Amino acid sequence: MRYEPERHHRRSIRLKGYDYRQAGAYFITLVTQNRACLFGEVVDGEMRLNAYGEIVRDCWLSIPEHFPRVLLDAFVVMPNHVHGIIVLSDTRAAGTRRGALQQPPETEQFSKPVAGSIPTIVRSFKSAVTKRINEHRGAPGAPVWQRNYHEHIIRNEDDFEAIRHYILTNPLHWHQDHENPHSTADSSV
To answer: Is the pTM here over 0.90, yes or no?
Structure first.
């Protein structure tokens, strides 16, 4: 299919003008391509990771090794999606150079990563997971993730605690999860 800018333009779903390098907490959700259950299964309300799920978990836990301002909070790898809280610490507290705080904010643009931003962190994570899973399954270039991801800027402690609770109890509610292809939830409600 030929690219037609009028028809195939992509719009960012990020908050326009928001500096995603800013210190704060962010709730991230990533979903597999076609919602395929690649990472394991939920049994009796507990997520049991398979080899691909272990790759996802290990890559998630290694994010702070690549992005020193990142602190990880609650996260869960589900059969076909991942929920997690990424906290960006203040650059002064993280020990980066002082001049970085005085630079004007950059906004993320397609194909133009902004160092230390949430979109760049997520892009790096998705890329690492895809590479490792595809090496494992011998399928170079095969998609693992849907394009883009969902994020929510956590604005206060009540929001933070509610999201943390949602993440930690997600496996208990898998049977009703809208991401579950075999959900028993009533879709008419």
So the answer is: no
Q: What are the C-alpha distances in Å from 49 to residues 46, 54, 80, 130, 168?
A: 10, 6, 11, 16, 15
Spell out the domain ranges in the chain. Answer: 24-94+112-176
Residues 24-94+112-176, CATH architecture = 2-Layer Sandwich (3.30)
Per-residue pLDDT of the chain (189 residues; tens, 9 = 90+): 554 555 544 444 545 666 788 899 999 999 999 999 999 999 999 999 999 999 999 999 999 999 999 999 999 999 999 999 999 998 644 433 333 333 444 554 555 677 889 999 999 999 999 999 999 999 999 999 999 999 999 999 999 999 999 999 999 999 888 888 888 776 544
